[in-house]
Write a structure and sequence with these properties.
This protein has 541 residues and is an alpha+beta fold. The protein has helices at 5-18, 31-43, 78-81, 90-113, 137-161, 198-206, 218-224, 241-251, 262-276, 279-285, 328-337, 341-363, 389-413, 450-460, 471-476, 479-485, 495-502, 518-535, and strands at residues 25-28, 62-75, 117-122, 125-130, 171-185, 192-196, 213-216, 293-294, 313-326, 366-371, 374-379, 421-436, 444-447, 466-469, 490-491. The strands form two sheets. Strands 8, 9, 10, 11, 12, 13, 14 and 15 form an eight-stranded mixed sheet that branches. Helix 1 crosses helix 12 and helix 5 packs across helix 8. The radius of gyration is 25 Å and the shape is globular.
């Protein structure tokens, strides 16, 4: 099946009736909301913050306005675990899954201690938010610093004490505070809230970089009475170690401990000991861990993440596709200021529903997750025994075109989003797919490889009109696709244009003289080459 405008319009119309703007219930996360969540959890024999997150299973027709502190954690040595001597191998993919399994498990235990909300894991990154105590932003930011210091040292200690050097990592953490909107994310057992707005986005940017440490936004610094550094220096100015311990102790309610690291170190030691007594974790992080890989016969839409686990993981050649809505965070912030949260929530449900349906139903792709407003999907063409690289790259190009066409129809139909765009990056390579971390419904769906990292990095450098392929996708692509993308990103590549790229029209048959001069042949070749360069001349914005 391929993308079809009538089918896409019908889906969009159906999604609009499923969660209409008029039916969106906008709530505020306040003490009354929190108290009701506590009562609901207790009625089920649960403890809020340990067994359940403060905000969870938000109904599809609800949006929750939340003042919170957003914490993004980056595992800096993740990419070193992906390769053996510059190459991805089955052994290196086993190691990186062990690496993620250990650190996801470690961070979940710290999340529980702080009654924090784990929003999502994505590759080497964790997004968490602290929403309590309600009405006390300073105390929330102090607790976020305590959380960040404890988390950073627990991850570092876990790597040193479990699995030896092959699982160690340095850690970088970004923190911002402010108002965001929580809406539903996922379906069934994968339901989690999604937090939208500039605090989450800015914390993620602060976590980007290659130097470890804890990096506070100026908004968070102001709340704590710390000197501001200016937006140009936020990503290069980490919180001094003595200030980390002083603020963390205050966050623990032990301000009298001052700059003493002992209270933090005691908690870190307890967390690592708990990890060391986890027999399942010990088994899965040992050099003999039972990670077993198999291929999944395309189409990938039939992958059932519920059936995956370390001993039953997928590893195969595939294309990773990231499609990010350009300008969406600014739109969310404008909707918060203008009291248009219902409009934004309804629009988001339609857009996410249509992009997911386009990937799954039109192109046989498998959605891994939505990361904020960004779709991560996987697509492959081949048999039970082997992937067809060139055909898989063709499929990624067609999927990219279909996603852009679907989004263009959303823009033409929905209010308030005409200025948005969609940036799409793809890369091809061997990729493991599994579920890792704490067992049960808290385990994390995971697709992790150089292809995944590269496709995301490519997408992040694009503007909302561009589509681009990674170097390995280009190396495995057909000549026609290499001609289109070889000079850089392609602008405004919708489904029709993608079809012309993947299957170019045959050259018209022209009667020729029996022989042509060599000069004329050179002239014709130069003209054709010039047209190719012009068509693919888009560069990164």
């Amino acid at each position: 099946m391929a993308w079809d405008p009538i089918r896409s319009r019908n889906r969009i119309a159906r999604f609009m009736t499923t969660v209409p703007q008029s039916a969106i219930d906008v709530r505020t996360f306040d003490q009354a909301y929190l108290s009701q969540r506590v009562r609901d959890a207790q009625a089920r024999g649960k403890r809020l913050g340990f067994d359940e997150s403060p905000i969870f299973a938000v109904p599809r027709n609800r949006a929750v306005l939340v003042d919170g502190v957003h914490v993004y954690v980056q595992l800096l040595d993740y990419h070193d675990r992906l390769q053996d001597q510059g190459r991805e191998t089955e052994a290196s993919h086993k190691r990186v899954l062990q690496f993620l399994h250990l650190h996801y498990s470690a961070t979940d235990r710290v999340v529980e201690e702080f009654e924090a909300q784990r929003v999502d894991y994505h590759g080497p990154r964790l997004h968490a938010v602290l929403v309590t105590p309600v009405g006390d932003e300073r105390q929330r930011v102090l607790r976020a610093v305590a959380f960040a210091v404890t988390l950073k040292e627990t991850i570092e200690a876990a790597g040193q004490n479990i699995g030896s050097a092959r699982l160690q990592t340095r850690v970088r953490i970004g923190i911002d505070t402010g108002c965001a909107v929580a809406v539903s994310s996922g379906r069934g057992a994968d339901m989690e809230p999604l937090f939208l707005g500039s605090p989450a986005n800015h914390a993620a940017k602060l976590a980007e970089g290659d130097r470890p440490g804890i990096y506070l936004s100026d908004r968070a610094r102001e709340v704590l009475g710390e000197p501001s550094v200016g937006w140009a220096w936020e990503r290069s100015t980490s919180l001094a170690e003595d200030r980390q311990y002083g603020l963390a102790n205050a966050g623990y309610g032990q301000a009298w401990s001052g700059l003493d690291p002992a209270p933090i170190r005691a908690r870190v030691l307890a967390a690592v000991r708990a990890l060391q007594t986890d027999m399942d974790l010990t088994a899965l992080t040992s050099s003999e861990a039972p990670f077993r890989f198999h291929r999944h016969e395309p189409p990938l839409r039939t992958i059932d993440f519920a059936e995956l686990m370390p001993s039953r993981s997928i590893r195969m050649g595939l294309a990773s596709v990231f499609a990010d809505l350009s300008g969406f965070t600014a739109y969310v912030d404008a909707c918060i200021r203008g009291h248009r949260i219902a409009e934004m929530t309804a629009n988001l449900h339609v857009i996410r529903g249509e992009l997911a349906a386009c990937a799954r139903d039109d192109f046989g792709a498998r959605k891994v997750r939505f990361i904020g407003d960004c779709l991560h999907g996987l697509v492959a063409v081949g048999t039970r025994l082997a992937t067809e690289p060139a055909s898989t790259v063709d499929a990624a190009v067609m999927l990219s075109g279909g996603l852009r066409s679907s989004f263009n129809l959303c823009k033409a139909t929905l209010p308030g989003i005409r200025e948005m765009g969609i940036a799409i990056g793809s890369e091809f390579g061997e990729t493991p797919v599994s579920r890792v971390g704490i067992r049960g419904n808290r385990s994390v769906r995971c697709a992790t490889s150089k292809a995944v990292s590269t496709s995301e990095a490519i997408q992040s450098d694009l503007n909302g009109r561009q589509t681009a392929l990674g170097p390995n996708a280009l190396a495995n692509a057909s000549l026609a696709v290499r001609r289109a993308f070889g000079a850089g990103p392609v602008y405004d590549m919708d489904h029709d244009r993608a079809g012309h790229v993947v299957t170019p029209a045959p050259a018209p048959s022209v009667a020729r003289p029996a022989a042509l001069s060599s000069g004329l042949l050179i002239s014709q070749g130069a003209t054709a080459a010039g047209s190719v360069r012009e068509r693919g001349s888009g560069r990164h914005a």
